[in-house]
Specification:
about 40% helix; 8 helices; four-stranded antiparallel β-sheet; five-stranded parallel β-sheet
């Protein structure tokens, strides 16, 4: 299967370079230098993953990511020349799955693409069975099913990205145990956790928003200060 990758960057050299490396791995690439053209492509083409530059001449990458998340759940990787935590947190909070800072090694980008696609395909393929694991949890009205990749709260479906689903599933799978940010990151992202990594916190915040969790007294995902997160 030749997955369709959307690449959006107004720096022609970067977009062209990513196109070459992705095509070398047999991906089909849809390349654009502006946000408006990219949004049109998203509406007309079945995209499997998007790589978005934040700084674009017309619509910034944050806005494109928001528009994607209104309808679609495929992985989104953000590109930026900035290294400020607030930009990274904002991107992750609005639904991005990964974040890469320029300058970068294009081989690393391709590796990240493969990782995100594997995760997305795994959690959207109900044919894959893991008989030694439980396939559904029902925690006080919060139901999450690994086979169908669906989540509902008091009978109403909750739309989750693959990363959000993975985080919630891991917490449910370890119900009653406090899970550190490091453990969550390394089991969900499959990468080494680094100090001052706010990725998990940003995704937990987004998850709580989707579950209508009160900020001070969440009903499901509780923060154990200095240790991590827990679903009781």
């Amino acid at each position: 299967m030749n997955e369709k990758i959307l690449v959006v960057d107004d720096e022609k050299e970067i977009a062209d370079l990513l196109e070459v490396y992705l095509k070398n791995d047999n991906y089909t690439v849809y390349k654009y230098y502006s946000g408006i053209e990219a949004l049109k492509c998203i509406e007309e083409t079945e995209i499997d993953l998007a790589i978005l530059d934040i700084m674009l001449p017309d619509i910034d990458g944050f806005r494109i990511c928001q528009k994607i998340r209104e309808k679609f759940y495929f992985p989104v990787i953000m590109l930026t020349a900035k290294i400020e935590d607030r930009d990274k947190i904002m991107g992750l909070t609005i639904g991005a799955d990964d974040y890469i800072t320029k300058p970068f090694n294009p081989l690393e980008v391709v590796a990240r693409v493969k990782t995100q696609l594997r995760r997305y395909q795994k959690y959207n393929n109900p044919v894959q069975n893991q008989p030694f694991q439980k396939s559904e949890y029902d925690i006080r009205g919060l139901i999450i099913n690994k086979d169908t990749h669906k989540c509902s709260l008091f009978g109403k479906e909750v739309s989750l990205t693959p990363i959000e689903f993975s985080i919630l599933w891991y917490l449910c799978e370890h119900q009653g145990k406090v899970i550190s940010s490091e453990e969550l990151f390394e089991n969900v992202w499959k990468e080494k956790y680094l100090d001052n990594n706010n990725t998990v916190m940003a995704h937990i915040g987004r998850l709580r928003g989707k579950l209508n969790e009160p900020a001070k007294k969440p009903k499901f995902i509780k923060t154990v200060w200095g240790i991590g997160y827990e679903i009781e």
